[in-house]
Amino acid sequence: MEYTTDYKIKNFTQVPDQDSINHLIHKALEFKSKPFKNQSIGKNKTLVLLFFNPSLRTRLSSQKAAFNLGMSVIDLNATEGWKIEYTDQMIMNSDKAEHIREAAQVISQYADIIGIRSFPSLTDKEKDYSDHIINRFIEFASVPVISLESAIRHPLQSLADVITINEHKKTHRPKVVLSWTPHPKPLPQAVPNSFVEWINLSDVDLVITHPKGYELAPQFTGNTPIIYDQESAFENADFIYAKNWSSFSNYGQIISPKSDWMITQKKMNLTNDAYFMHCLPVRRNVVVEDTVLDGKKSLVIQQSENRIYATQAVLHQLLSSANSL
Ligand code: CP
């Protein structure tokens, strides 16, 4: 696998280019075989994690990745109580007691790398797609910032997914199908946006399938084929990546529940004995049938494990980039 040895990054919020994918996959797989091989690089370095919404996998895999590199971790749960003002020149007499200008600079005094997890409003498309929370942190932080999922992207999940596909693919260019699935709550488009962004720079043939009205933002899908018939999209697929997302055009809405879009074993039988993937958490027998999730072709636990090595590769890259700047 080719990769660029002197590849440097300042922040990590999205996939930069194809070279970086190959480089990060290579690095992550090295860490997977030898997790503690670079423990000195994180000595006396601190990762501060800020979560503005709940997380199991991202929280724990980020901590584990940092520990593997010898870093210390401060994990701040900012889901309630602590509200930041992101807009300039505001008269701050509402419930927001702290401005991003101070908050990002203050956290930078305690951190060598800052990880931010935020969610979209799902009501204000323009604001969400400006990714203003993570971008304002980057604007005012004096240390590197890593996205633990932003309003519109989940790059660490996508890197783990690309690693997982690389480990399991049986042909040079497997067919990967991103399938919309039902869900009772409106969910962000961050995971599918990122997945398309990363997969389109990888050696795979990507097809997206969803009901009409659930088209993702064109800036992410580009020329990716979209098939509105789920069963025909599944034919000859090597990987089925299931995910719900709310509508982009009717922003943040569930425009129709479409419970018949659940992933079933019958639908998986149409594929080329495909692997099943999902970023988790997943609602059983709403998104996917038990039989598929518990079956031998399910990769969901391997994806979660690879979150550690994806994050470790990115943290290592940030630390070594900072050392050589
Ligand atoms: N896949 C993922 O990001 O999971 P968490 O929301 O639990 O972090």
3D architecture notes:
It is a single chain. The protein is of the alpha/beta class and 325 residues long. It has two domains: 18-154 and 307-323, Aspartate/ornithine carbamoyltransferase (Rossmann fold, 3-Layer(aba) Sandwich); 157-303, Aspartate/ornithine carbamoyltransferase (Rossmann fold, 3-Layer(aba) Sandwich). 37% of the residues lie in helices and 14% in strands. It is built from twelve helices and eleven strands. It has helices at 18-33, 57-68, 100-110, 125-129, 132-140, 155-168, 190-199, 218-221, 230-234, 265-268, 290-293, 300-324; strands at 46-51, 72-77, 84-85, 98-99, 113-117, 145-147, 175-180, 205-209, 226-227, 239-243, 275-277. The protein has a five-stranded parallel beta sheet. The protein has a four-stranded parallel beta sheet with strand order 2-1-5-6, sandwiched between helices. A two-stranded parallel ribbon has the order 3-4. Helix 3 (100-110) packs across helix 5. The radius of gyration is 20 Å and the shape is globular. The two termini are 26 Å apart. Mean pLDDT is 95; it is low at 1-6.
